[in-house]
Amino acid sequence: MSEPHGTGVRLAWRSWLLGGLLLAALGGEAAASVQRFPKPEFESGYALPLPTAPAPRAAWLEHLDVAVLAAALLLASWLVLRRRSRREILLLMLFCLLYFGFWRAGCVCPVGAVQNAALATATRAYTIPIGAALFVLLPLVTALFAGRVFCAAVCPLGALQDLVVLRPVKVPGWLQRVLGVLPWIVLATTVLLAACGAGFWICRLDPFVPFFRFGGSFGMIAAGVALLAVGLVVARPYCRFLCPYGALLSAASRLAWRHATITPDTCIQCRLCEDACPFGAIRVPDAPGPAPESLAAGRRRLAWLLLLCPLLVAGGAAAGWGAHGALAQLHPEVRLAEQILRENADEAAGHTLESAAFRATGEPVALLIGRAREARARFRTGAGLAGAFVGLVLGAQAIAWSLRRRCPDYVPDRGACLSCGRCFRFCPRERVRLANRGAGTAAAPAAAGAPEPEPRP
Amino acid sequence: MSTPPVSAAPSPPAPRGPGDAALRAVAIAAAVLSLALCVLIVADYARLKSADPLNSRALQALRVRFQQDPADDALKEEIRTLDLLARRTYFTRTWQVRAGGILLLASTAACLLAWKTLLARRRLPPMPGACPGGDDRWAAAARSRRWLAGAGLFLALLCVGLAFLDRSRLAATGAQAPGAHGETAGTATAAHAPADTPPATPTGLPAEPLPLHWPGFRGPGGNGHAPADADPPIAWDVAAGSGVLWKVELPLPGFNSPVVAGNRVFLTGASAAVRELFCYDADSGALLWRQPLRGIRGSPAAPPEVTDDTGYAAPSVATDGRRVFALFANGDLAAFTVEGAPLWAQNLGTPQNHYGHSSSLVADLTRLYVQYDHGGGSRVLALHTDSGRVAWSRHRAVETSWASPILVHTGARRELVLNAAPQVVSYDPDSGEEFWALECMGGEVAPAPAYDDGLVFVANQYARLAAIETGNGTLLWDQYDLSLPDVASPLAVDGLLFLAASDGIVTCLDARGGTVHWTQEFPKGFYASPVLAGGRVYATDMGGTVHIFRAAAAYEAVGTAAVGESVVATPAPVGRRLYVRGSRHLFCFGAP
């Protein structure tokens, strides 16, 4: 993930620079820098070492990151769609956890790079690095072709959670659906904050980065530990119920050209895979018999929901607009301006570090106020748009849950399925396929005790 | 395809393998170790947070004692020892937390690995339960919709609550409301007006703006071109008084240039202690009013250090016909009506400028533009002329500069062009967005850009002369081997470019190609920028001699006239008059 470091100066390089600095610091690379404050003079004759600054990360290493991501996505797609090997997916996941997680310290990653893209879209003053842009686009494009293989084997955050899944419980379907709206709300908020210049909050609150970097704030570590503890019994809670990038991938995966399947050929409805998915992403076939609700009643409800959808959008816009003031407080300059105004009105307990530093610059308060007002104005528009988006998501979900979709077989729910491959081995047809591949077609069906699989139409 | 019936059968107890006990022991041991490490790390972390070595009570008590008795060497040594001990403790604990974290990660991984292996060994084949009799997805969908409605309602209430809890002072203070302590939003209201003047109100503005004859440094847009009807004199005699309409002594020193709107001439003067704006009657030279700038919040108590050849009043004023704006070396910026009523004032922050700030102001009907390049953080500002509020502000990655902005219309759009090292940048005057930027300048930049026919020209001594195409900021040509100005700005007109350098050499070049048409050497150098009026170029040297020649590809002198004292300010040609600021006097040459 990535994190900004200011507004006046270029806000660029959030993701790359942070990782670069860390790496360079670890590697001991150093370059001359400027002393910001006068050096203290020691009577003992102690000579202060020269200040150093880490050199930026080499460009070829950034290209390497993109190349590794692209290769990992291709390999993951192949493993999920062709090889159908959970073990090999697991190995790739471990490699990506080591590379993108521990070696690259969780930065850059597509989840955070969404914020770079949002900021670059919102302002011409910021140009997204090509590497960050590719980190956003490549997994999305891959999802359009092969589903959420990024979640399956490439994302280090997902990998960390995947490894701690111990005794997954089945989250009730209705609860999973409702919680599944959360990532969209997180996405709207994240984009709003990044686009309005309030910073990259997803990175600041990333609960897993402290594990990759062996350090972090107490809050972040506590959140990470809590999520992993929950993850022992609720598989991948962050991916399913919080990840904003997962929401985008979920939408792209629904349109995927190819997607992972439970069975390699034809579902024989043996029900063996029914409880195979710890993420509750297997769609169960329609029950025999008449539907418990008449078609007319379903149509009426759908019509009402379609009529309600514009109202939800308008209501969401109004609610977002109303909350823009509170959201704008997350912008550092708005917060600083409010503090300065409170101090000037003798309403503040005292100076904060930020207000004292600002006053030391000699910059006129009017300029700060002007910038803060501009930021609030951006939030007014942005929060309205974000609210409208959330309203649209709520309406669209309600409509989606009211549609009748035929499901004759056990198939993955394309939006929720993480393509992890756990369900493969539960399918007897898969065992036949593996037996055929390993021992030859003649002996395999008998060995597996299942009929010869027929090619899929 | 129908679902085959599967009988419901309870899962048999998991068989235990030979290694299960060992795995379970490893898992339990690793879990206990993880838990213990977790407790230790949290405890150590809490102690680490509470034990700030620099602020330990013992150390602070020793410091207080040392302040009372600075000569106590034993106490000094004791403080050093304790300080070192505290720091060692701090860093040791930091190391312990980090090492504990790595151990915790390893033990947790071992626990998980053992446990997962154990579970994998004991895993049974899947055994589906009874075949469901009905379809419960309908009920789940209905329940999901109900909860979704609840979630939506909760979000809406949350937003309403947040809206009610918003106690923003930014929102509360309107554009015209005086801010607390006078330096806050709307900064620019009466709270910043000079203390001994009545509060400013917009009613003091004239109903009709004065004609903008020469509204700022180097005239309209700052480009050095007088209006087409200008026909200033080509000869006068100060000693004999012929051709001199009036001459007045200036109360305060300053190097800014006269600015003319209607029948008013504006300029400023300042010393280390006082800063004033003057308004003279253009016909008689009578001082109509003078306004000191006092009591501006944020104005530094001590004046900044400036050099004698820059002074405290180098930036020229600007006017929009209703208001006049003045900026001084200490960052004080004030607006008055053309009748002298104070409107607003603020301090932009003391510029860190080793010579003194000298960039002049440029105004249009709604905005005032300030090039504020200095060591404390360069930026360009657009302020609302009516309130002084910031319309937009952009940080600039440039060094300290002394050049003034120009505001030109390129045919397709208006551009605010700023010259500085290393970049020449064009901004959208409405939004502040960059149109283009070109790294082509170096040194200490004082000459303003010049514009003509789609080209921007920038020059600086010991750097280069460059012609840049507006629109995309492409370098058309550049020149190094010329006598380039270090203060006077270039003048571009009808395909010709004129440079007046401080070594006394005036150069005329082809604006499109950069070839030199002619050069002419004069005894004195030029600080005042050449201006165009009536098809003639008026170049005033530092000795106070105005050299007048045709704006043509061949040098043709038209006249020479002396002011009688040194001149570094740029003259203002208006109608049949020429207003010149000398070192001590303001002159008006020409016909009534």
Quaternary structure state of the chains depicted: heterodimer
Kindly estimate the percentage of residues of chain B that lie in beta strands according to DSSP.
25-35%
Q: Mind summarizing the main beta sheet of chain A?
A: 2 strands, antiparallel
Question: Rg of chain B, please?
Answer: 37 Å
The total strand number of chain A stands at 4
- Quickly give the structural class of chain A: mainly alpha
Biggest beta sheet summary of chain B: 4 strands, antiparallel
Give, in spatial order, the strands making up the sheet with the most strands of chain B: 1-32-31-30
In the predicted model, the low-confidence regions of chain A spanning at least 5 consecutive residues are: 1-35, 441-457
Helicity range of chain B? 10-25%
- From the N-terminal CA to the C-terminal CA of chain B, the straight-line distance is 107 Å
Q: Largest protein interface? A: A-B, 83 and 79 residues
Report how far apart the termini of chain A are.
Answer: 42 Å
String of helices and strands of chain A: HEEHHHHHHHHHHHHHEHHHHHEHH
Please work out how many helical segments of chain A DSSP would assign: 21
How many β-strand runs of chain B? 32
Overall geometry of chain A comes to globular
Helix-strand category of chain B: alpha+beta
Mean pLDDT of chain A: 84
User: Helical segment tally of chain B?
Assistant: 5
CA-atom Rg of chain A in angstroms? 26 Å
